[in-house]
Design goal:
There is one protein chain. The protein is an all-alpha fold. It is built from 20 helices and no strands. The protein has helices at residues 3-47, 49-52, 54-74, 78-114, 122-141, 143-151, 155-176, 183-209, 223-258, 260-296, 300-327, 329-337, 344-359, 362-371, 375-386, 388-397, 404-429, 433-461, 467-487, 490-509. It is globular. This is Putative flippase.
C-alpha cells in the first residue's frame, strides 16, 4: 500500500473509531454526572484529573518513540529501529517510576487542607488518588508500544484498543447505578484499571507483530542512545507536563476560589474540548508518520508542505464542528446533560476558542518534532503556557473577576503560543512566514468569516427548540463549500478529490 492509500485507509479507520467513541464517551459522561452528582463528579475531576490528562501526556511522549522509529524507517534501518524500541522501553520504565514516586510525595500534602474538598469526602478522594497514581506507571510504559504502532501507521489496532477502553467506561458508568455503596471510590478504581487492560492489549500485539519489538537488550541499554532519547523524550515530557500542569493548575485555582461545583463545569468543558479535538488530532495522527519519514529521508520541502497542510486542515476540521457548537452551546448542553452546572456554557465556549487557536500551528508542532532539536521550542512555549496559572490566580485574587476569566486568559495565551511556534520554526527550519500567511491564514479567513456570520444570523433571528440541528446542517454545508473553493489551492483540491475517491474505493472493497 502506497503512502497516499495508507493515509486514506488510516484516516477512515480513525474517523470511524472517533465517531463511535465520541458518542459513547459523551453519553457515559452524562450517566456518570447523574450517578455521582455535581459535587462528587467535581471531586473526581479534581483528584483524578492528573490521570485524565495523561491521554495528552501519553500522546506527547509517544511522539518521541514514534519520531525516531519513523525517522529510521525513512532510512530503512531495521537494526536502528530495534535499538530505538528497547532503549525507549527502558527509559519509560524509569520515567514511569519517577512520576509515580513524585505523585505519592505530592499526595502527602494535597489532602492536608490544601484542596477545597468537603471533609466527609476526603478519604474517598485520597483512595482515588492512590489508585490513579499507580496507573500512571502503566500509562507511561505503554508509550513505546503506542509509538511503534503509529510509526507503522497501524491505526486499526489503535482504534480497536480505544473502542475497548470506551466500552469499558460505558460499562462502568452503567454499573454505578447498581451500587448503594460509595460510587465515587468504585468509579475511580474501575476507571484506573482500564489503563492496565490497554497496556496488555498494546504490548501483546506489538511483541507478536513487529520484529523490532523485543525484550532483548531492554535491561542492557546503550548509554549514548538512551541519553539522546532521554533528551528528546525529556523535553517532550516537559512540554506535556506544562500543558497538563496548566490544565490541572487551573482546576486547583478554580477549586480554591469557587469550590467543587465549578470544577464540575471545568471538567465538562475539558471533556467537550477533548472530544472535539479528536477530529483534527485524527487527521494529524494519520499524517504525522509521513511528516517524520519525510525528514528522515532528507525531504525538508515535503515535510514543511505537509506541516502547513496539517495546520490548515486541522483548524478546518475542528472549526467545522466547534463554531456551530460555540453558538449553540447552551441548547446543546441542556439537551445532553439536562441539568447543566453553573458556568459550564461559557467554560465550554472558551475552551473551544483556545483549542481553535492551537490548531493554527498544529502542523508546525509536528515539523519541529520531526526536526528533532526541540529544547528551545519546549522551554519557550511550555513556560508561556504555565504563565496562565499566576495570571489567573492574580486576577481572581483581586475579587473583581468571574470564574470565566481563567478561561479567557487560557484562550489568549494559546494564541500567543502560536506566534512563538512560528518564530521558532523560522529559526530552526527556515520556515517562511509569507508562505504560512498565504497558504494557511489567508486561505482560512474567508471561509471562517462566512461561517461565523452565518451562525450569528441563525442564532439571532431564528428561534425554535431544536434550532441547533438546523444550525449544524447549514453551517457545515456553507463552510465546506467555501473552504473547498476559497480555502484550498489547486494541488490541495486535487488531493482532496483523490482522497475522496480512495476512501470511496476502500469502502466499496470491504
Amino acid at each position: 500500500m502506497n503512502a497516499a492509500n495508507r493515509v486514506a485507509a488510516n484516516t477512515l479507520i480513525l474517523y470511524g473509531r472517533m465517531l463511535l467513541t465520541m458518542g459513547i464517551t459523551l453519553y457515559s459522561t452524562r450517566l456518570v454526572l447523574n450517578a455521582l452528582g455535581s459535587t462528587d463528579y467535581g471531586i473526581y475531576n479534581l483528584v483524578a484529573g492528573i490521570v485524565l490528562m495523561l491521554s495528552f501526556l501519553n500522546t506527547a511522549m509517544a511522539t518521541s518513540s514514534q519520531r525516531y522509529l519513523s525517522f529510521h524507517q525513512g532510512r530503512k534501518d531495521l537494526q536502528k529501529q530495534k535499538e530505538v524500541f528497547t532503549n525507549s522501553f527502558f527509559l519509560h520504565i524509569v520515567i514511569g517510576a519517577i512520576i509515580v514516586i513524585g505523585l505519592e510525595v505530592a499526595g502527602m500534602f494535597l489532602f492536608d487542607g490544601f484542596l477545597n474538598i468537603p471533609a466527609d469526602r476526603i478519604d474517598s478522594a485520597r483512595i482515588i488518588y492512590h489508585y490513579m497514581a499507580v496507573t500512571v506507571f502503566f500509562t507511561v510504559i505503554t508509550v513505546p508500544f503506542n509509538g511503534l504502532l503509529i510509526a507503522h501507521e497501524n491505526m486499526l489496532w489503535v482504534a480497536f484498543v480505544n473502542i475497548v477502553e470506551t466500552l469499558l467506561k460505558l460499562g462502568i458508568a452503567l454499573f454505578l447505578y447498581t451500587l448503594s455503596s460509595d460510587r465515587l471510590v468504585v468509579y475511580g478504581i474501575l476507571t484506573a484499571s482500564i489503563v492496565v487492560v490497554s497496556f496488555g492489549l498494546y504490548s501483546v500485539f506489538c511483541f507478536k507483530k513487529y520484529p523490532e519489538c523485543t525484550f532483548k537488550g531492554v535491561m542492557k541499554p546503550e548509554t549514548g542512545f538512551v541519553k539522546e532519547l532521554a533528551g528528546f523524550a525529556g523535553w517532550n515530557l516537559f512540554g506535556a507536563l506544562c500543558g497538563m500542569g496548566r490544565n490541572q493548575g487551573l482546576a486547583l485555582i478554580l477549586n480554591l476560589f469557587f469550590g467543587t461545583v465549578v470544577n464540575a463545569a471545568y471538567g465538562i468543558a475539558n471533556q467537550v474540548g477533548s472530544q472535539l479535538q479528536f477530529f483534527s488530532r485524527t487527521m494529524l495522527r494519520a499524517l504525522n508518520p509521513q511528516i517524520m519519514k519525510s525528514e528522515g529521508a532528507g525531504d525538508r520541502e515535503r515535510m514543511l508542505r505537509l506541516s502547513m497542510m496539517a495546520s490548515k486542515f486541522g483548524f478546518f476540521l475542528l472549526s467545522f464542528f466547534a463554531i456551530p457548537i460555540i453558538f449553540e452551546m447552551e441548547a446543546i448542553l441542556k439537551f445532553w446533560l439536562k441539568e447543566v452546572p453553573p458556568y459550564t456554557v461559557v467554560f465550554c465556549q472558551l475552551i473551544l476558542i483556545g483549542a481553535l487557536a492551537n490548531q493554527l500551528t498544529i502542523g508546525v508542532q509536528s515539523a519541529l518534532q520531526a526536526y528533532g532539536d526541540i529544547k528551545l521550542y519546549q522551554i519557550v512555549v511550555g513556560s508561556v503556557i504555565l504563565l496562565n496559572l499566576p495570571l489567573a490566580y492574580l486576577l481572581l485574587k483581586t475579587g473583581d473577576f468571574e470564574p470565566q476569566t481563567v478561561l479567557m486568559t487560557y484562550a489568549f495565551i494559546e494564541l500567543f503560543a502560536c506566534v512563538l511556534r512560528l518564530c521558532i520554526a523560522k529559526i530552526k527550519l527556515s520556515f517562511s512566514y509569507m508562505i504560512y500567511l498565504r497558504e494557511v491564514l489567508l486561505k482560512l479567513f474567508i471561509p471562517l468569516l462566512a461561517v461565523v456570520v452565518c451562525n450569528f444570523f441563525l442564532v439571532r433571528f431564528i428561534h425554535f427548540e431544536y434550532r441547533f440541528i438546523l444550525t449544524a446542517i447549514l453551517s457545515s454545508v456553507i463552510y465546506s463549500l467555501i473552504f473547498y473553493y476559497a480555502g484550498l489551492n489547486q494541488k490541495e483540491k486535487h488531493l482532496v478529490s483523490a482522497f475522496y475517491l480512495k476512501i470511496k474505493s476502500l469502502i466499496h472493497s470491504k
